[in-house]
Design brief:
Subunit structure: Part of the Bam complex.
CATH class of the largest domain: Mainly Beta
Number of strands: 36
Number of domains: 6
Strand content: 35-45%
Family: Belongs to the BamA family.
Shape: extended
GO biological process, one term: protein insertion into membrane
Distance between the termini: 93 Å
Function: Part of the outer membrane protein assembly complex, which is involved in assembly and insertion of beta-barrel proteins into the outer membrane.
CATH architecture of the largest domain: Beta Barrel
Oligomer: single chain
CATH topology of the largest domain: Porin
CATH superfamily of the largest domain: membrane protein fhac: a member of the omp85/tpsb transporter family
Keywords: Cell outer membrane, Membrane, Repeat, Signal, Transmembrane, Transmembrane beta strand
Length: 762
């Protein structure tokens, strides 16, 4: 049987008409040389089928199509008695990719990066792709400052035409920045400029922060920080003339030199508004963040542009454009700004859409909306809606987009995308606190019951101080206008004898109902009524006022307690606030219907100040007052206490205020009817946690004290402390640690530097 190389192949490659062949009808097609590729795959790329006429043009197309697949190193076509034989030489497939010597990266992360350049397991092996992969791997190391990295690649043939690719890496040591120099500065000292930069020379913490390792991205960010520093101080002509980065021959030391021109300081000569004023100019003037005579500041210009755009957005002009046009007078070193206002078309919101709420019902999100469908676009209302969703505590993140409706010039949709967090908690376990020691606890809690927004909690715990079983339910939207209803039943035993508190025991059982009503966007008032029965046990070591109270009122006291409260919450987040104000006032009155008569009130004011990047300062004040009335005493178990991780850290739990010495010559606290606590705490993210908000460190300063009925309230009585704290919203509940130092210790004060609380203590 005569076999010959198909002349059409040569014709396709050499384009020579002399090597043409006569077309023929294909009797059959065979494929030879394949090991992994299916014959059907080859057939699918051929431009001819059995029974069809095969020509020189189709032969050329077949060769090109098979080569283009990348599956084959060589392709030939032969013919035997009008039968086409396709002979292929397959490229090997990558069976496995492995790394040796990798310490700086996770192997899976590297494989993902190599896959993006075309090198991955099960793909066809290509030497050119391998070279790109080596360069990508080296680039990854260079980004970490490992300039001395050495990469050796080994390709090992395996059975069934496969190969294994092995990267042997000698990482070496990271190059360190030995010197950063700034040339050309006259107004500001070099040290002040270097303090603005994230890149630094080696220091005592750079082993952790790695800020002494060069990164092109970090240097670009540092250059922008320098530019912003100068532009915000009036140096409009500031420029970076050159940036030089050099590395020593041994690739261990890096030297960075920045050459700058500061220029002259400019002041604002005039500020004007121009354009289409759909909002009265008188309403826009107060939004200007700069005025004539001020030093030029780029941040002020940016803030003015944003404020004007937001104001127009509140009137429905979602696509308003505000441009700041400068007029520079280089002789007088002055600059005038004209803010051109182009409101565009007024638009309204067609639909409000929600995504990501797999468990939470749409109606729970929709009732928090302050932007209505079919109404004019209102930027403030949309942002307010986002804040309200975030405050629910059901979501880790809330994002908002307002895309234009296709085919319309005056409509947008408001798309809210949420990332749900676990709102249910089934916990059987143990907690520990420095006050209560071991706490065995069990709880079933769901803050978003069946996705309805209702909350139900069954709590049980056993500790040395508190033993509690409580069931509560809250419907935050009992009515459509936001009236809430809730109820509670509980049984609580209190035994504070393990604390430095006066000895007694109490056992309470009670139930109550409560209502809440929104009186403003951020304000709610609440009312409640509860009945309580408390049995009290006193001992020989109990203080005389406690024994006297039991003698006068018996060991069982019943009360019908009415409560009223007001709360204003303007914080930006329920879980991880960084800005805003929280205020709360409450009043508890034992009505004269039953045994007890007392009034107990408290007020808390908390203010958060953001500093960017997850940093925030929290100032908190909390005062309380209680007293009996109608000739009755305040029940001693309604006293206020201070000291410990919840009030004034650095002092033992509940030890501040009036005290007495028991029969065993042990000093114990009595508590009091007046309390004042103040806290200042600076929060910052846990280093290395990135965008994770659940862990935060803080520096704190606390002050507080408790006074008895016969004491005079004096600032000199206050106790002070300061220290470092750590908080974590863990899956099993909040964890809090503090390392505090008592700054004012009087005789009899009990201090405790390290305090902690693990797990939820009810």
């Amino acid at each position: 049987m005569k076999s010959k190389l198909l002349p059409g192949v040569i014709a396709a490659l050499l384009a020579s008409p002399a090597l043409a062949f006569e077309p023929f009808v294909v009797k059959d097609i065979r494929v030879e040389g394949i090991q992994r590729t299916e014959a059907g795959t080859v057939f699918s790329y051929l431009p001819v089928k059995v029974g069809e006429r095969f020509s020189e043009e189709k032969a050329s197309q077949a060769i090109k199509a098979l080569f283009a697949t990348g599956f084959f190193k060589d392709v030939r076509l032969e013919v035997e008695n009008d039968v086409i034989v396709v002979l292929v030489d397959e490229r090997p497939a990558i069976s496995q990719i492995d790394f040796v010597g990798i310490k700086e990266f996770e192997k899976d992360a590297l494989k993902k990066g190599l896959k993006e350049v075309g090198l991955a397991e099960s793909r066809i092996f290509d030497r050119a792709v391998l070279e790109r992969a080596e360069q990508e791997l080296k680039r990854q190391y260079l980004s970490k400052g490992l300039y001395g990295v050495q990469i050796t690649t080994t390709v090992t043939p395996l059975e069934r035409n496969r190969v294994g690719v092995n990267f042997n890496v000698v990482e070496g040591e990271a190059a360190k920045i030995r010197q950063i120099s700034v040339i050309g500065n006259k107004v500001f000292k070099e040290k002040e400029l270097l303090d603005l930069m994230a890149l630094t020379t080696p220091g005592w913490m750079t082993w952790y922060s790695k800020s002494d390792q060069y990164s092109k991205q970090k240097l670009s960010a540092d250059i922008e920080a320098l530019r912003s520093f100068y532009l915000n101080r009036g140096y409009l002509d500031f420029s970076i003339d050159s940036t030089q980065v050099s590395i020593t021959p041994d690739k261990k030391d890096i030297y960075i030199t920045l050459s700058i021109t500061e220029g002259e300081k400019y002041t604002i000569s005039d500020v004007k508004l121009a354009g289409t004023m759909v909002v009265p100019e008188a309403d826009l003037q107060p939004l200007l963040k700069l005025k004539a005579g001020d030093t030029f500041s780029r941040d002020s210009v940016t803030a003015t542009t944003k404020a004007l755009s937001d104001r127009l957005g509140n009137e429905g002009y979602a696509f308003a454009n505000v441009n700041a046009a400068p007029e520079v007078d280089k002789v007088k070193r002055e600059v005038a700004f004209t803010f051109f206002v182009d409101p565009g078309r007024r638009v309204y919101v067609r639909k409000i859409n929600f995504a990501g709420n797999a468990r939470t019902r749409d109606e729970v999100l929709r009732r928090e909306m302050r932007q209505m469908e079919g109404a004019w676009y209102d930027g403030a209302a949309i942002n307010r809606s986002k804040v309200r969703l975030d405050r629910l505590g059901y979501f880790e993140d809330v994002a908002i987009e307002t895309p234009a409706v296709p085919g319309s010039t005056d409509q947008v949709d408001a798309n809210f995308t949420v990332k749900e967090r676990a709102t249910g908690n089934l916990m059987l376990g143990a907690g520990f606190s420095s006050a209560e020691k071991v706490i065995l606890s069990a709880s079933i809690a769901q803050q978003n019951l069946f996705g309805t927004g209702n909350a139900m909690t069954l709590q049980m715990n056993t500790g040395r101080i508190n033993r509690t079983i409580a069931l509560s339910f809250t419907n935050p939207y009992w009515t459509v206008d936001g009236v809430s209803i809730g109820w509670d039943v509980y049984q609580r035993n209190v035994d504070p004898t393990s604390l430095s508190v006066a000895t007694y025991k109490s056992s309470s059982i009670g139930a109550g109902v409560r209502f809440g009503y929104p009186i403003a966007e951020d304000d709610r008032i609440n009312f409640g009524l509860a009945i309580d029965q408390t049995k009290i046990d006193v001992f020989d070591t109990s203080p005389a006022p406690y024994i006297s109270f039991v003698n006068n009122f018996g060991d069982t006291a019943r009360s019908l307690v009415a409560t009223a409260g007001w709360a204003r919450d303007r914080r930006d987040s329920f879980l991880y606030p960084t800005s805003g104000v929280y205020q709360r006032a409450s009043l508890e009155v034992a009505t004269p219907v039953l045994d007890l008569r007392y009034v107990r009130g408290s007020y808390q004011h908390q203010h958060w100040f953001p500093f960017g990047g997850g940093h925030a300062l929290m100032l908190n004040g909390d005062i309380g007052y209680a007293h009996g009335y109608d000739g009755k005493e305040l029940p001693f178990y309604k006293n206020f206490y201070a000291g410990g991780i919840g009030s004034v850290r650095g002092y033992q739990q509940s030890t501040l205020g009036p005290r007495y010495i028991d029969a065993n010559n042990y000093t114990r606290s009595l508590g009091g009817n007046r309390r004042a606590v103040a806290n200042a705490e600076y929060y910052f993210p846990m280093p290395g946690q990135g965008k994770d908000k659940s862990m935060r460190l803080s520096l704190f300063a606390d002050a507080g004290y408790v006074w008895g009925p016969d004491d005079k309230v004096q600032a000199s009585d206050l106790r002070y402390s300061a220290g470092l704290a750590f908080s974590w919203s863990s899956p099993v509940g909040p964890l809090k640690f503090s390392l505090g130092q008592a700054l004012k210790k009087e005789d009899g004060d009990r201090t405790q530097k390290f305090q902690f609380q693990l797990g939820t203590v009810f």
